[in-house]
Amino acid sequence: MKKIGVGSHMQHGKYRFIAGFLVLPLTIYGVFLVSPFVQAIYYSFTDWTGLSPDFSMVGFKNYQRLWNDDVFWKAVGHNVLLLLVLPLITLGLGLFFAFMLNVGGRRRKNAAVAGVRGSGAYKIVYFFPQVLSIAIVALLFQFAYNPNSGAINSFLSGIGLDSVRPDWLGDPGLALWCVMAVMVWSNVGFYVVLFSAGMSSIPRDFYEAALLDGANRFQTFFRITLPLLWDTVQTGWVYMGIMALDGFAVVQIMTVGPGGPDYSTEVLSYYLYTKAFRDGQAGYATALGVALLIVTLVFAGIVMKLGRRERLEF
Amino acid sequence: MALRTERTEGSPRPEAAAPVVDSPQGRIGSEGRVLNVFSHGVLALWGLMVTLPLLWAVLSAFKSDREIFTSPWALPSALHFDAWGRAWSQAHMSRYFLNSVVVVAGSLTGTMLLGAMAAYVLARFTFPGNRFIYFLFVGGMSFPVILALVPLFFVMKNMQLLDTYPGLILVYIAYSLPFTIFFLSGFFRTLPTSVAEAALIDGASHTRTFFQVMLPMAKPGLISVGIFNFLGQWNQYLLPTVLNVGDEDKKLLPQGLVALAVSQGYKGDWSGLFAGLVMAMLPVLAAYVVFQRQVQAGLTAGALK
Fold it and tell me: Among A26, A29, A182, A255, which would you mutate to test the B interface (most chain B Cβ atoms within 10 Å of its Cβ)?
């Protein structure tokens, strides 16, 4: 009898405890994150300016306008290009450097493969950009790209390439590539560290066996390292894709305009920002946001589908 | 996930302990040597590409404005410290630093406390709606923040939280909760149940068990996610750019730095501008070098499942 009493009392206390611990996080999360997301979808069907409290429902008008908006399609094109190029280069370099760090070293006694000496130091340096605010990185490169006094062109002059001094951010054909270079520069280190951690947990005798069988080191990369790291690479792909679909800070801080000459660095996030907070078209801006969400979900779906493989346990 | 991180980051590397012995002559030996030279060459090249822009900024911060233009890669002829003074006081860098400290102190404390509480309850208790709430939180990781930004701006405006630090703190907490809860609930699930049960049988309340038994046990996980959140919030640019625009003096460090770049650039004070940039850069880099193992583990923790 007594035991049941204690039990139900405990049960009662348990629910009070659960509610007490969840109420504050859920309230903050609901008010500042969930509700704005839901509202965004609602506002995308209105003609709200954001300046006055009045607005009316306009159905799919914002989406029709999107469909015919050249700048929107330009921004989508840039985001898709970033989505294709950025993960490929960033993850590629990350895998390459991580493999060099872990397998590229001189052979030692009793070890088929070895990491290079000082791999810890390389990783410390590679990770530098990752701890800096994207605002710092974007400003730094805005100055570095300066055609007259910037670090890059004065370096080109220094090595005798005085005739090749591109206008970088001022050149519509180059500006977007400058943006990509900055994003690659700041993210490679993260993936080197991430992949390196994964690689160092692959048992060394896997490599030993493959090398004894006559494989060279580059074959071991594709036959052993990459398949065993696949899960991590896939996660990295999603991370980098989300990065590519953003790009707000780099475009806003670094590029001329901002948005580049002739909209050459316009991306969805920055276009949304200008529509909402400069042009007073909050309704249209949220429609842009919904479009961005759709691109994001399609991308995530593709990665999940393409990336599905049998999980290798070791 | 956390255990995995522990193992890969913490275990001594076998090759570090092995004595360095020249490999025997032969095909593999010479291949190894060529490869070794190649690896170091490539790795050092990327190392230079990472450090040179940073180094260039540091050099420029000690130069006169003329030198910045005429000899960008040369060492400064004399160490000019005056730009640092200008950036620190005239261009309000000291103010921006303080503002960021105030906001991040509040938001980081709130994130860790509320995140750990929610994660603990969701990981260790069964109750109706548990899974729904968990996925509601975790789902927040996959939505583009910019989509919520327009309505969020007006939510804040209606609550009179726009351009205020409490407002920013609440928003930072809200946008940090998804990852914090995802990571910490995974961590709490791996902790043994016996200690908490013993505490409850001894008459400790659930709340007391959480604060005095479970939180100390979760310390490694809290440190990882704490570093992750600290850097994310300290470096945050998008949210304050939209939600904290009222007063020049209330800007946070990253947005203040961008404002400084505009104002000093306008005045032609390039050295002051670089001094501001380096001032914002060096403390984070220094802290990172000291705690590099923890920082690397913390930032990659979410991706290493």
Answer: A29
